[in-house]
Specification:
Length: 413
């Protein structure tokens, strides 16, 4: 089976942590079929001035863990022209895919994210006469509220041969767009339990330059408003009063036009929290397990999520979590032995949840066992079975068939 993957969110040499969850799934799928990845670069005249240097200097072809990854440019109009991205994406890629198909006569196009990738994939699938699958991830929650995007999402999802959702919550968003429940399969992300595993806390702190005796509260995620790092900073005065040795560390990069750094730094200065907060920026994916293992508690005060893989990664490292009850978070933190879920709209609930978690004794073995039950290898096998059923035109594999009423399939998150 020959699979062409389309995803604008995929790691590259300039952004090694960008969309790692897509690569982790597809490099395992590639053990069972022939995979070629097309990860387009958004382009517009004066692109470097508009989007910054992060999209410049990326090689047209990279090899990542044995996967060939192509980075063609696709026309993308900034700001008010974003509703055109799907159509422009497809038009820009048509000649690229025509050339690739002579080398790899792909049987199927597998798109990650419903827009613009999913819409472009459906248009290109029609042009090349091959079926399309679309994986729903967190961005659909926001895009489904935009009048210009809703009909495009509905068009793409209805015409895909199969739709995958990484959480039940995202399936419900798609159903709200009018997509039949039976057309959607829930296949959660997994965790690399060899990379994300318990480590010696003192060794990790020493390697990262973190104080040995501190109580470390950690967040991993982009430095933007939606991840809620500023809300944790706002809670710090009370947290520090109760835990004088507390240090808050944020691992995550920032993007031009969507950075909360200035706000966080202003709040730190206003509350006299210098020395209590470290913004360490984006770190290599292989280094993230050390940051997790160095922490006492992981916290993600996120406003919206599809499936926050970093929650599973923290649990795999034996670290309890506090996060908001949004998206698929409750499908990961399924009981209070793993962490605490708090009201996403309440700063008081967030502060109380962190204090409660810091006061509690946790069982690391329970945390790691739960995370290890969500293996990337198992997810990949389920994905391959689904893709093969699409290509061969056969029935959905019996163990993946939806339960009565269109419920979840496969493993529960």
């Amino acid at each position: 089976m020959r699979v062409l993957v389309l995803s604008t969110v995929f790691p590259n040499a300039k952004q090694p942590a960008f969309g790692v969850f897509v690569r982790e799934r597809m490099r395992r799928v590639a053990r069972h079929c022939d995979v070629r990845v097309v990860a387009p670069i958004p382009w517009f005249p004066l692109n470097r001035l508009i989007r910054g240097a992060r999209w410049s200097g990326i090689a047209p072809l990279e090899w990542q863990d044995g996967l060939p990854v192509h980075h063609p440019r696709v026309l993308s109009v900034p700001r008010y022209g974003k509703w055109l991205d799907g159509a422009l994406y497809a038009a820009s890629l048509w000649p690229v895919l025509a050339r690739l198909r002579r080398e790899l006569p792909f049987d199927l196009i597998d798109a990650h994210f419903a827009y613009p990738d999913g819409l472009a994939a459906v248009l290109l699938g029609r042009a090349f006469g091959c079926p399309v699958t679309i994986t729903l991830r967190g961005s659909i929650v926001r895009l489904a509220t935009y009048p210009a995007h809703r009909p495009q999402l509905r068009f793409a999802l209805r015409r895909a041969a199969r739709v995958f959702a990484v959480s039940d919550s995202l399936k419900r968003v798609a159903v709200g767009l009018g997509i039949p429940p039976g057309h959607i399969r829930v296949l959660p992300n997994g965790v690399d339990a060899e990379r994300f595993a318990p480590r010696d806390r003192r060794e990790c702190r020493a390697a990262l330059g973190l104080p040995q005796e501190a109580t470390i509260l950690l967040s991993v995620g982009g430095l933007n408003e939606g991840k809620g790092h500023h809300r944790i900073v706002a809670a710090l005065p009370e947290l520090v009063r109760r835990h004088p040795g507390l240090l808050y560390v944020v691992v995550g990069g920032e993007h031009p036009g969507d950075s909360a750094r200035a706000r966080i730094e202003r709040d730190v200065a206003e509350h006299g929290l210098e020395g209590r907060v470290r913004l360490v920026g984006e770190r290599p994916h292989d280094e993230v397990p050390k940051w997790l293992a160095a922490a006492d508690l992981f916290c993600l005060a996120t406003r919206s999520e599809g499936w926050a893989n970093v929650l599973l990664e923290a649990l795999a490292c034996g670290i309890p979590v506090v996060t908001t009850r949004v998206g698929g978070n409750a499908e990961i933190v399924t009981h209070e032995g793993l962490g605490l879920l708090v009201d996403p709209g309440s700063d008081e609930a967030l502060r109380a949840g962190i204090l409660a978690a810091l006061a509690r004794q946790w069982n690391p073995a329970v945390l790691t066992a739960h995370a290890r039950a969500h293996s990337w290898d198992t997810t990949a096998l389920e994905v391959v079975a689904e893709l093969r059923a699409v290509v061969e035109g056969g029935p959905v594999p019996a163990h993946l068939a939806p339960a009565a009423g269109g419920g979840r399939v496969g493993r529960r998150g």
